[in-house]
From TrEMBL, chains A, B:
Gene3D superfamilies given in the database record: NAD(P)-binding Rossmann-like Domain (3.40.50.720), ProC-like, C-terminal domain (1.10.1040.20)
Matching PANTHER family: CONSERVED HYPOTHETICAL ALANINE AND LEUCINE RICH PROTEIN
Domain of life assignment: Bacteria
A matching Pfam family: F420_oxidored
Name under which the protein is recorded: DUF2520 domain-containing protein
Length: 255, 255
């Protein structure tokens, strides 16, 4: 049995609470938030508190709070030598107070409170200073059905950066697709199956092998047509830059 | 019963042949390609030919050939007043010889010969000069289980352009994610569930509503960290441009 205290009541904390709470070999001993309002509804299934001094004993304390709050809370903890972990992709492990044993449980997925999460689709990247702590965290992650990977600080940072490219930037390309189509009264809905297929393709094929289209073929006539269709200069810049990137990757002549 | 002649033997032609061939109310009367080699293996299930003069009578002729070949083949056809359609997202309907009735069946999906295709995930965009022809093409597309949409030339062109953003450019962002992670010995595999989730999110939520991340939050510290992690200047340019695009979309201060 692994006992856990959760700190924070945002997207990540809430999903962790829910999955831990239904996992046989995990007990959520306590749930802390600086204000009780968001966790009050769970008080019948877990002990809740808004006082760090009232924190109970547990195998691991999960600081699922805003990046900027991690260091501060870690130094306010009224105990020593216990295992504390944060869940951030970019906060340094050494930013947490060294009076406790430290680790990171970085869930490489996008969380929002409203959406349900299947933890088998949430790779959990684990970083610890002490190897013994790694085994406990791995056991915790495996218990909720997540794939796990031991990583170092640099690897966590590049994964967080790569996540911005494949999630936030990709979503912005969807947004541009939305703008372009709706400007002519065409439907963004028509693009949805293609969006899914594009994401599925790289599950089994490298993005290098999966590339197609006018940039890769160096089809200058289509590229010119597309640029003349684009009315927004910012969209033109993105078209040019990504076309060049594809051509560089695939050894075509530089634009 | 709708009778069809397919011209071309590439990705699109091959998938169309397979789905038509197993659809009850569609007969593939003949399959033409300028060389018989790729279609020879199908000669027991369909009449094949490499001679335009030998083309049989059919309700519709589908020119699923390279964009540049569409106009030429359309004028070499040895008949008049029949319905011919191409499958391209960007070739003008008027580029086909006007001796025949003309239309477009643009399948808004990515095809490769190796991958299997479920036509219920292939929206078929239909353009015709004559309304009567539209009904036949719609009937054809519905018979193979595809969603259909009647569109005009401009709408087809912007859909093709938007497809480049959500497919080719998105795939290049996946590629950059691959490069960044592997450069530190982290695994691209860890990003795959996030890639799927990002694509799934916009199936039910607009890309505008789905946006998250440091650019949207205007989290300058993280943005600076990311830029200093990026060693490749081309990747930096893309990071900057897409960060600005997100901030413009979401009304943040311009960088
Ligand atoms: N969301 C994601 O997709 C995702 C994915 C992977 C990792 N992460 C990481 O997980 C952590 C939490 O993210 P989240 O999305 O769950 O955040 P969130 O929804 O914004 O919630 C943040 C939580 O932190 C608390 N908090 C903020 N400042 C605090 C302070 N000074 N003292 C005490 N508590 C404070 C907030 O308390 P109140 O309830 O009182 O406001 C809130 O409960 C972050 O490190 C983030 O980088 C997030
Ligand atoms: N692939 C996609 O994802 C996709 C998606 C939507 C629309 N489309 C459109 O569908 C059409 C076909 O694309 P595809 O990907 O199937 O192409 P493809 O795989 O490259 O095949 C092209 C076919 O056209 C034939 N061809 C080329 N030049 C010709 C010529 N001068 N005369 C006669 N035949 C010629 C080729 O004959 P050989 O076999 O002799 O080389 C080949 O069978 C294009 O208009 C494309 O824009 C493609």
């Amino acid at each position: 049995m692994i006992s856990v205290v959760i700190l924070g009541a945002g997207n990540v904390a809430t999903h962790l609470f829910k999955v831990f709470n239904k996992t046989e070999n995990i007990t959520v001993r306590q749930w802390f938030n600086r204000n009780l309002k968001p966790i009050d509804q769970y008080k019948n299934s877990v002990s809740i508190t808004d006082k760090l001094e009232a924190l109970k004993d547990a195998d691991v304390y999960i600081l699922a709070v805003s990046d900027d709050a991690i260091a501060g809370i870690s130094s306010q903890l009224p105990f020593e030598n216990r295992l504390i972990v944060h869940t951030s992709g970019c906060v340094n492990i050494h930013d947490m107070d060294k009076k406790n044993r430290r680790g990171v449980l970085y869930p490489l997925q996008t969380f929002s409170k409203a959406a349900t999460i299947d933890f088998s689709n949430v790779p959990i990247c684990i970083e610890t200073l002490d190897k013994k702590d790694y085994h406990l965290l791995k056991h915790l992650a495996v218990s909720i059905g997540s794939p796990t990977k031991r990583i170092n600080t640099n690897q966590r940072k590049v994964l967080h950066l790569a996540a911005v490219f494949v999630n936030n930037f990709t979503n912005q390309l969807y947004r541009i697709g939305h703008e372009i189509t709706e400007s002519e009264g065409a439907e963004f809905d028509l693009l949805k199956p293609l969006i899914i297929e594009t994401a599925k393709k790289v599950q089994t094929m490298s993005p290098y092998m999966a590339q197609t289209g006018p940039a890769k073929r160096n089809d200058q006539k289509t590229i010119k047509n597309h640029l003349s269709l684009l009315e927004n200069n910012h969209h033109k810049d993105i078209y040019n830059l990504l076309t060049q990137a594809i051509q560089r990757t695939h050894g075509r002549k530089k634009l």
